[in-house]
C-alpha cells in the first residue's frame, strides 16, 4: 500500500483549513486493507465540512468496514487552493485514513446529494487519475459508483459513472461487494453486466437513449440480461440497521456538528415539490427503545452535548414527546444535552416539544410553510392552515424565542403575484405576533426558487425562468419594504436555473456538466464559484437550450429521462397528483388515512412501519380535520414487519 | 485544575478552537464534573492560554478547567489521554489555588524551536545577528480590522542557531530539504509574536515550529505554569508523525 502522506504534508502549510485533509476522526477506520478485501473509497463531492456529517456515507462506511471481505476509506473534495497544490505536486485524490491514492481502490463511490456538485464529481474522477468518461476506462481502473437522492435521475452523469444505486444502500452495498469479491478477474464489460443484474443497480452503459426530433423517445436496455426498468431498494425494517453505531467525530467543526440519530426514514405527508418525501416512501420508524439506546450510547461515546433526531418530519415520530423527555431527563445527560428536531412540523404542539428540548441554548426556531397562501399550500400539498402557523409562531414567541425563521418557495405551479405577496403578508403577521412579546422580535423569510424534481408530481412542470424568478423576488422586496422586523432572504435565481438544467436533464446534459467542469467550474454550490454563464455556454456547445431543458412544461405522454428507473411510485399516481395540484386539491397523509396506491408499498412489497396508528396530537395535521379523534379515521395500517434478526 | 499537554504530528493542523472543542468532548466522555457558565447559553468553564498558531507543534500547552466537585489530579492524565485525538497527550494536571491568575495574564514569554529549511547554519546565524543588532523591527499587522505598525524588536528576548548537523532534513516542509534550526524566546507582551512574523523579520521561510516552553517571569525569576513531567517528549525537534 502506498501512503502519499509525505507528499501531502508539505502542502498543508500552504492551504486554508489544512485539518480538512488529516482525517483522525473518532470512529475512523485505522486498519489497512488486507489481501482479499474489496477496497472502497467513499467520496462526498463537496468540502470536508459539508460532506463529513453525511449519514448515508457514514452508514455505508461502517457496514463495509464491519465485513471481513471489505475495506472502506473516505475522501472529500479538496478546496480549490488544495487542489491547485495537489495538481502542481502531482498528488492525486487520496484517502484521509492512510493517504492512499484513489487509483489503488477497487471502487470509488460517490454520494450524490445535490445536482450542483456534479462538476466536482468529474473533477474528483479526474484528480484520481481516471479518464472521466466511463467508456475510456478499463479493467485496471477502479469502478466508479454513485448513490444518493440525485441517483433517481442519473442521466446527466451516465457517461461518467459506471453504476448507480437507487434507494437505501444498506443491503445492496453488501451484494455489490460480494460480486466484486468473486469476479475480480472478470473483464470490465462482463462485470458491468453482472452488476446490472443486482436489483437496484443501474448500469447506464447497458442502456441506450433514443432521440426522435431532438427529444428523448426512450431509454432502452441493450441486452436481455438487464432489466427494462430498475426498481429502487428499500430496507423494510430500520431496526435491523442501527447505523451509524460509531458516528465519526471530526477534529474540526463541520455542519450538523452533533450526534445525529435517524428516527425514521420516508415521509407520507405528500408535499408535491419534495423529492425526498416521494422517493423514500414508505415510512419506516425505528423502534423508540432503539432510538433511546443509540442516543445514550452515542452521547457517551462521542462527548457531544447535542443530539439531533433526524428524519423528514421529526415531530411525526410516534411518541416523540416520550423520546425527547427521556433524553432531557436522563440523569447521565445532567441537563447539559440539547435535542434538536430538524424539519419541524408547523403547529403549537411541536413548539411545546421544542420548548421542552431547548431549555438550554434557545436560539431560533424554523418552520417551513413553503407557500404564502392557503391556496398555494393546497397546490403543493403542504396543508398547513394559517391558524396552525400562527399558533406555532405565537407559541414560539410566548415561550421565549425571539427569532423565527420561515422557509418559502417561489416559482410553484399556478403561482400568482398574490401568492408571492402572501409570503410577506404571512411573515408580517408573524412579526406582529412576535412584537406583542418582545420589542426586538424578528422573523426571517427565506425564499428559494422551485426546481421541479424527478419522481415527483411536479416532474412535468416547467420551471420559472431566471427573469421570472427575479421579477418575483422584486415583488417580494417591494412588499417587504413596509414591514418592520421582517428579514427577507432569497436564493440566487441563476443558481436555481443551473440546478434545473441538471435536475431533469437527459444524458445529453452530461456534455454540459463536462463543459462547466473543463471551464474550471467546480464548487458550483458555492456562490463565490458559481457562474451561470459557464452553464449557458455548455448548453450552447451541446446544442441544447434552457427553454427546452428547464423552462418547458412536459406533456403527460412525454418520455422522461428517468422513466426506466423507479422509486416505486406509479407514473399515473404522480400524474393524477399533479392534476389534483393544479386544482388546488390536497391529499391527506396515508399513514392515518386510506391508501392512495401510490405504489411505494404495494409495488415494492413493503409496508409502513409505524408504532402508533393515531395521528400525533396538535394542530390539524394538515388534514383540515379535527384529529382529536384520530383513531376513528379509517386506518389501513399494517402489522410491524420482522423483529431484528 | 491546570493541565499541561502536547500537540504533535498531524493534529497540529487543527486550530486553537478545534483543540478547545476536543477537550470539551473528552471531559464529557470522561464524565468529569466540569462547571458550566450560568445564563442563556451555558458553556463549560475552560480557559486556554496563548493560542498556538495552526500548523505549529507544542510540548507546552496549558488549559485551566473549573470542576464543580473534587477530582483526583493525579489520575486525570491517564483518564483523559485515551479520550483525546492522537497527537494530543496530557503531560500533567495539578489543582490551582483559588483566585489564581489566568494563563493569559501570567505567561510572559514562550520559547520555540523552529526548522529553517534551505538555509544553512551560517546563513541563519547572519540573519539572527542582523535582527539582534537592529534598533527596531517594524512589521505591519492587522488588529481588530485596522492595519497598524508594531515594533517587534522588544519582543526578541533571545534568538540563536541550534547546534546540530547542517544536513538535518525537513520532510514535513519539503521532502528531502536540508537546513538549520532556530531557537527563539519571544515575549508575549504586549502581544505575542507568531513564528510567521519572526520569519518576516529574519527574511527566511520557516518550516515546522514547535513551542517548547511557556514562561512566567516575575521579579527576576521564572517558572513554567506547570512543569513538564520527567519523561516529556524529546525537546529536540523530532518527527512526531
Overview of this protein structure:
The complex is a heterodimer of chains A (645) and B (241). Chain A is an alpha/beta fold and 645 residues long. Chain A has a domain at 5-212: Cobalamin-binding domain (Rossmann fold, 3-Layer(aba) Sandwich). Chain A is 32% helix and 14% strand. Chain A has 20 helices and 19 strands. Chain A has helices at 5-12, 48-51, 55-66, 80-88, 118-127, 172-182, 188-196, 275-279, 288-302, 320-328, 348-357, 374-379, 386-398, 417-435, 466-480, 493-503, 509-518, 532-541, 546-551, 571-582, and strands spanning 38-44, 70-76, 107-111, 143-147, 163-165, 201-202, 207-212, 215-221, 230-231, 259-262, 264-265, 284-285, 306-310, 338-340, 364-370, 403-410, 442-449, 486-490, 565-566. In chain A, the strands form 6 sheets. Chain A has a 6-stranded mixed beta sheet with strand order 2-1-3-4-5-6. In chain A, helix 15 (466-480) links the parallel strand 17 (442-449) and strand 18 (486-490). In chain A, helix 14 runs parallel beside helix 15, helix 15 packs antiparallel against helix 16 (493-503) and helix 17 packs across helix 18. The longest helix of chain A is centred in the middle third of the chain and has 19 residues, at 417-435. Chain A is globular, with a radius of gyration of 24 Å. In chain B, strands 1, 2, 3, 4, 5, 8, 9, 10, 11 and 12 form a 10-stranded mixed beta sheet that branches. Chain B folds into 2 domains: 2-103, Alpha-Beta Plaits (2-Layer Sandwich), CATH 3.30.70; 107-223, Alpha-Beta Plaits (2-Layer Sandwich), CATH 3.30.70. The two termini of chain B are 29 Å apart. Chain B is globular, with a radius of gyration of 19 Å. Chain B is an alpha+beta fold. The chains are: A alpha/beta (645), B alpha+beta (241). The interface between A and B is medium-sized, with 28 and 32 residues.
Characterize this entry briefly.
Chain A has 645 residues and is α/β, with parallel strands linked by helices. In chain A, 32% of the residues lie in helices and 14% in strands.
